[in-house]
Amino acid sequence: MKKKREDDERNAKIIATMHQMIRDQEEEDLRNREKKHEAAMRYQRELDAQLNDLRQRSISTLKSGLKAKFFLSYVLIFSFCRNDE
């Protein structure tokens, strides 16, 4: 009877230790998933910022290019008008 109780206590300790190890592993897995998710979100925000910068530069370049074309058109029209006089 004493032997059975000692075996039961030992088995209970082993089971409790296993459960604790499983909980610890699950918590670590959760932390790792959260870290990966945060890293992925940070990377996505950086990509979004780079894309936004690229868009702004493209728009700026287009606007300055259009201004140059309008200016050139104005100069050409003005020069033709002056030649007519």
Rg for CA atoms:
36 Å
Order of helices and strands: H
Report the major sheet: none
Structural class: mainly alpha
Beta-strand fraction estimate: under 5%
By DSSP (H or I, 4+ residues per run), the number of helices equals: 1
Terminal CA distance reads: 125 Å
Overall, the morphology is rod-shaped
Low-confidence stretches: none
Kindly give the count of domains. 1
Helix content: over 70%
Number of strands: 0
Average residue-wise pLDDT:
86
Quickly list its features.
98% helix; 85 residues; mainly alpha; rod-shaped
Describe this structure in words.
The protein is an all-alpha fold and 85 residues long. The chain has one domain. 98% of the residues lie in helices and 0% in strands. It has one helix at residues 2-84. 0% of the residues are buried.
